[in-house]
Amino acid sequence: MSRKEVVVSNVSKEHDNPIAELVQVACRYDSEIILESNNRRINAKSIMGIMAFNPSKGMTVNIVAEGSDEEEALDAMEKFLVCE
């Protein structure tokens, strides 16, 4: 299991449809990917979960990935959320 804490950048400014795009990034990987913030845990591959989670600028998020490609998944999720 890999874990990384990031501060979300302005994803709505950088991406046309940030919620759908974030789910698409997560779905590229076989690993389970969970986002955590303020005692909430959601599956990053769930569009409804991401909509309810609503990652927004300045929010601190823990990305947790577990599986065969967890490091790659973690890096991709981080790049998306911090808009690199």
UniProtKB/TrEMBL annotation:
Gene3D superfamilies: HPr-like (3.30.1340.10). Residues 1-84 form the HPr domain. GO terms for molecular function: transferase activity. Its EC number is 2.7.11.-. InterPro entries: HPr, HPr-like, HPr-like_sf. It comes from the Bacteria. It is an enzyme of class 2 (transferase). Signal peptide: none annotated. Keywords: Transferase. It holds the Pfam family PTS-HPr. PANTHER family: HPR-LIKE PROTEIN CRH, PHOSPHOCARRIER PROTEIN HPR. NCBIfam families: PTS_HPr_family (TIGR01003). This is Phosphocarrier protein HPr.
